Amino acid sequence: RVVTVSAGAIHSTALIAGGAVFTWGKGEHGCLGHGEDLSNQLLPKKIEALAGRRVVAVSAGCLHNLAVATDGSVWSWGGGGVGQLGHGDEQTQLLPKKVDALAGRRVVTVSAGREHSLALAADGAVWSWGGGGEGMLGHGDEQIQSQALPMRIEALAGQRVVAVSASLLHSLALTANG
Hints:
By secondary structure, this protein is mostly beta strands. The chain is 0% helix and 46% strand.
């Protein structure tokens, strides 16, 4: 039973009721999460690297993906060209890799945009990373350089954020008071 789906630029992701993640589409940039197998997948294929982990949320970006496990940990894979994977570098990840910079934060949902990512913690804090052009990371500037590690969006401090969404060149946050 599929509980949620997410469409990226060249691939799709599905989360199954038991917490398994399936991907299909173009395999380039490792966006399918199947390791060295970069072949295109015409049918949904389970990401074996996440076996044994119960995933509760997924989001497909342009060439990367994010997933949240039941323990609140965040996992990313695919193209990392401007730091959108959150590992402190710009490397491509062929398999899901834990975003260590968010360890200790209980993340409840994520959103992958074109070249940036967002994470919403259980306490309502929002974290962003990746390409920073157009001010889409929410840190009060229009920096062109990337932010390769998650950084808390201080402008939202004191707000109880309940949902986030990353898009092509902007981000949105919904607060509890609407």
